[in-house]
């Protein structure tokens, strides 16, 4: 799984499911980071107050639009 970290909104997205509703397009490129590490994500959530994105993080399969 590949994650997109939005450092401006302090949100964690799953790139496979992220879409327009995630609104990370409003975040400058330099404040976005891609990570493959679930450990990094967990650390951000537990120690830095990051939240998971409700629009995409809980998806386990492709959404039919
Ligand atoms: Zn999202």
* Low-confidence blocks of residues: none
Count of separate DSSP helical elements:
1
* Percentage of residues in DSSP E strands: 15-25%
Q: Could you give the distance between the termini?
A: 21 Å
From the spread of the alpha carbons, the general shape counts as globular
Question: Could you explain how this protein is built, in words?
Answer:
The chain has one domain (3-52). Strands 3-1-2-4 form a four-stranded mixed sheet, with helices on one face. The mean pLDDT is 92. A hairpin with a 4-residue loop joins strand 1 and strand 2. It is of the alpha+beta class. The two termini are 21 Å apart. 17% of the residues lie in helices and 22% in strands. It is globular. The protein has one helix spanning 38-48; strands spanning 3-6, 11-14, 32-35, 51-52. It contains one helix and four strands; from the N terminus they run βββαβ. The structure holds zinc ion.
